[in-house]
Amino acid sequence: MFLSLGFFFFFFWGTSIEVDYLSRKDYRAISTKKYPMFCYDRDNIYDLFLRYENMKSRNGDYDSIDRTLAILRYAKKHALGGPRIHEVYIDECQDNQIVDIALILKLFDRVDGIFLAGDIAQCIARGSSFRFQNIRSLLYLWELKRPLTNYNRRGIIKPKQFEMNINYRSHNEILKLASSVIDLIWHFFPDSIDKPSCERSEVGGPKPAVFNEISAEECFLKVFNSVNVQGKHTTNHIEFGAKQIIIVRDDDDKEFVMKLVEEAAMVETVFDCKGMEFDVVLLYNFFKNSPARKKV
């Protein structure tokens, strides 16, 4: 089961800040604009959450949220000690739950020394509802309600945000394609992500090619050195090297494609190749086997 549990936590503000699960009543009352995910089916989602918690309890299991919550509860009762940290830098912050950021604030207790960097376009975790706007709200509320005995006595610090829109790893045509996808998400689900801004590159390049109404064997034969069709090898003059990759949706597609291309190409799922860089990328049948098709 893939279920994002980050929004099941609520921050109670006062002389101290605590984190715990939301009640059903509080979960149903959350602003739709603040948390748009599952906004029209929250009772069923909460039922799933309770079943998930019961399943973990029966099996003696725990997840990353339980781990973070346990540390927060321990930090409430015990001084953690250790070396004093002056600054914290967090990269790929879109891969973290909001409660993970709350833990860092609890341990560090200074928002003016925390720097977060991330990219909503690289947020690929299922069920993730990451938005920089939520992080800004958390940091501001933390400053607003933090005890006056804190090390920082200069008053409330409003978190600043700036965007780096020049991409040095892709050319403009690829960025235009990526931007069009983000624009579609913003158009149909405007509260699910931060408002996008266009990236640009100082380098031009060819438009991405689309292979439509063509078999997998024919497609791979066009771009790879060899392809295995029913045990017979067919060769082409185009070689496929280490800086190219085929990206597939899941392990089933990966197994199918690997049987066709064998050692002629690297094949990985989106989750396995995140953060890696290649010169040529082939996205194979990514939408055909999407679970979303079953809901249309």
Automatic annotation (TrEMBL):
Gene3D superfamilies registered for this protein in UniProt: P-loop containing nucleotide triphosphate hydrolases
Record's keyword terms, sorted: Hydrolase, Signal
Organism domain of life: Eukaryota
Membrane spanning residue stretches: none
Tagged with keyword Signal: yes
Organism: Gigaspora rosea
Name the record gives this protein: P-loop containing nucleoside triphosphate hydrolase protein
SUPFAM superfamilies: P-loop containing nucleoside triphosphate hydrolases
GO molecular function: hydrolase activity
InterPro entries on file: P-loop_NTPase (IPR027417), TRANK1 (IPR039904)
Signal peptide per UniProt: 1-17
